[in-house]
Amino acid sequence: MNELVRLLSNFIRTVAIRLPDDVLTALKELSLRERSYWGKAVYSLMFDNIKLALEKGVPVCQDTGVLMFFIDAGTNFSYINMLPEAVRAATLKATEDVPLRPNVVEPFDERNTGNNIGTRLPWIEWNIIPNADYAEITLYLAGGGTSLTGNAKVLPPASGFKGVIEFVLDVVSSYGLNACPPFLLGVGIGTTVETAAILSKKALLRPIGSTNHNPKAALLEKIIYEKVCGLEIGPQGLGGSTTVLGVNVEYSARHPATLAVGVSTGCWAHRRGVIRIKSDLAYELPFYKGEVL
Ligand code: SF4
User: Which residue, 134, 242, 262, 276, has most beta carbons within 10 Å?
Assistant: First the structure.
């Protein structure tokens, strides 16, 4: 248990301090394409920020967010029964050690718990994998500004994809600024408001640059990407030619009478990490080349 908690708290530290490789690559590509003076200046500040965070071992953004874990747990993973407690203990430890900003407020007390633990937080979404002997844990640090953009709605199916695109653009043009652009845009499509919302969040967990396996969903990603770029919100909302790190669409089949759409954003400091842990506690960090926990 101690070793599992140590691994997980160091993993949380890495996610808070170091941007994932795919996010860094995408930011570098966007910075080369940006044409506006202020946009270029913002990228320059971002890269200074990223470098200093690594050098000093401090979080890349002061808002270290609320911790959300998405756990694919193999039923034969030796530590499966310990995972909920280990995640909680690692959150407490990382909050003190890194440190992470205490961000958890109990809504009916208006009181910050001070340790990033609260009712149903850290959030854990479970997915059970029969007969596998590993756990793949994705951590997303959900910052306040980037979470403020979130929205979901159930449309009548007659709205079609035109209605989906209009809703996404309406949300992004109203609140996208809060998500510290260039942001990653996640769009979920399903039956109900909560399934569309969670799919939009899961869309943010996909590697940047990946496309949906369904060519029609991939086309929707491309169309939304081009339309959002056309808004010219620019880095940090100061105007410019680069606004999005990417657009990821995830979907489920839907009820014939509904077309639900969810929107989530991940900011430029898109802190999403993955650790795959085997039963002997050997681990892989697919988004952090060379990192040792
Ligand atoms: S939106 Fe992201 S980069 Fe901006 S303050 Fe929030 S966590 Fe930090």
Answer: 262
